[in-house]
């Protein structure tokens, strides 16, 4: 199959209406979208990505007013958060209604809902009579795409169309929250930070992080977000000493390290801005992965704001040695 890249929202819509998959831009990462109410269309997403069928998908909607169509028992804190951060990089796990196909939720009683903040995604969604199921548009297990070119590298030949909306402005996946017993639980760190959530709801969110194999959080599988080359995260000076003599790429926040080669030193934000660092993270992982190196070393980022999400993605990337 030939994969075309373009900016034709009408063409993307007509492919989606007839049950095809289309890669779409969002502010976080590119998604691989299909009609969420058509199980055959959704199946094509799993096939194109080689995604395990037990890993459920996020439903993308044009506005929070339609949450009620697919979810029930929506708590007040959810509404507060939706008013503050939707459209935006926040995904809500809510009790599903029966019209959401099983293949979307992988059998879970919860459905994941999100309103993306990208103008192209919003225009596309507003013109459709159905929500879009969309995981990140990468082969299952690899780093998520933040440009149309990344999607082509990973899924070229497997999907008909990539709707190009430019580079993603957030650069890592949405924050995922659920509301067990009136609490707020973070299932995945993202651009909406724990600090943001607490400020709006006056409630400190609880972490579901660390339960890496919890059945209700398949996104926590260690095999997510991983480059092919081994990645070690920690004190980079120490790691450079430990791996002396090997070719390394270094991913750091503000500064280069003297012992690392300048062209393999990937500084994410010389000015020390965690938003900028997040935006550059996945490109840096790809650049390091494609360089002629034995391994990738990465700093631990400050544990605040976007630093939670950056550290989460890096720490999951470090465990995996894919074959
Ligand atoms: O920013 C994002 O969220 C991007 C863009 C395209 O919207 N999407 C994304 O999708 O990152 P994906 O599938 O790569 O990650 C979604 C995560 C998965 O780890 C999945 O396990 C979890 O959300 N998830 C989805 N539905 C769920 C459900 N019903 N219960 C528990 N976890 C769910
Ligand atoms: Mg993904």
Descriptive overview:
This protein has an eleven-stranded mixed sheet with strand order 1-8-2-3-7-4-6-5-9-10-11, sandwiched between helices. It has a four-stranded parallel sheet with strand order 12-15-13-14, with helices on both faces. With 323 residues, it is α/β, with parallel strands linked by helices. It has two domains: 149 residues, DHBP synthase (Alpha-Beta Complex), CATH 3.90.870.10; 91 residues, Rossmann fold (3-Layer(aba) Sandwich), CATH 3.40.50. Helices cover 30% and strands 17% of the residues. The protein contains eleven helices and 15 strands. About 3% of the residues have low confidence. The site of threonylcarbamoyladenylate has 27 residues, from strand 5 and strand 6.
The second-level CATH architecture of the largest domain is Alpha-Beta Complex
Strand content: 15-25%
Number of strands: 15
Structural class: alpha/beta
User: Which strand order does the major sheet show?
Assistant: 1-8-2-3-7-4-6-5-9-10-11
Low-confidence stretches: 211-220
Label this structure with key terms:
binds magnesium ion; 2 domains; Rossmann fold; binds threonylcarbamoyladenylate
Summarize the helices and strands and which ones pair or pack.
Blueprint: E1 4-6, H1 9-17, E2 22-24, E3 31-35, H2 39-49, E4 58-60, H3 67-70, H4 76-85, E5 90-95, H5 102-105, E6 110-114, H6 119-126, E7 132-133, H7 148-155, E8 161-163, E9 175-178, E10 185-188, H8 194-201, E11 206-207, E12 231-233, H9 236-242, E13 248-252, E14 265-267, H10 274-290, E15 295-298, H11 307-317
Magnesium ion (MG) is lined by residues 135-136, 144.
């Amino acid at each position: 199959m030939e994969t075309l890249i373009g900016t034709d929202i009408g063409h993307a819509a007509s492919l989606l209406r007839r049950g095809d998959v289309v890669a779409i831009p969002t502010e976080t990462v590119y998604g691989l979208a299909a009609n969420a109410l058509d199980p055959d269309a959704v199946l094509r997403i799993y096939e194109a990505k080689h995604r395990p069928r037990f890993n459920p998908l996020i439903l993308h909607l044009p506005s929070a007013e339609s949450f009620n169509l697919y979810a029930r028992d929506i708590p007040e804190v959810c509404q507060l958060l939706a008013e503050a951060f939707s459209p935006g990089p926040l995904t809500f796990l809510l009790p599903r209604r029966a019209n959401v196909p099983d293949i979307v939720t992988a059998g879970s009683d919860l459905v994941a809902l999100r309103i993306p903040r990208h103008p192209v995604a919003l225009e596309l969604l507003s013109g459709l009579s159905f929500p879009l199921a969309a995981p990140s548009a990468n082969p299952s297990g690899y780093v998520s795409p933040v440009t149309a070119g990344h999607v082509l590298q990973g899924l070229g030949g497997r999907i008909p169309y990539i709707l190009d909306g430019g580079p993603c402005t957030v650069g890592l996946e949405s924050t995922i929250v659920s509301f067990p017993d009136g609490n707020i639980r973070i299932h995945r760190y993202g651009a909406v930070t724990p600090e943001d959530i607490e400020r709006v709801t006056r409630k400190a969110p609880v972490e579901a992080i660390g339960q890496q194999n919890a059945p209700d959080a398949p996104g926590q599988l260690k095999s997510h977000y991983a480059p092919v080359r081994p990645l070690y995260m920690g004190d980079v000076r120490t790691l450079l000493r430990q791996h002396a003599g090997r070719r390394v790429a270094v991913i750091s926040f503000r500064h280069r390290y003297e012992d690392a080669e300048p062209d393999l030193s990937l500084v994410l934000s010389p000015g020390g801005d965690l938003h900028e660092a997040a935006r550059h993270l996945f490109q840096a992982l790809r650049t390091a992965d494609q360089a002629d190196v034995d391994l990738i070393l990465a700093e631990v980022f400050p544990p605040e704001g976007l630093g939670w999400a950056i550290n989460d993605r890096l720490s999951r990337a470090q465990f995996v040695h894919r074959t």
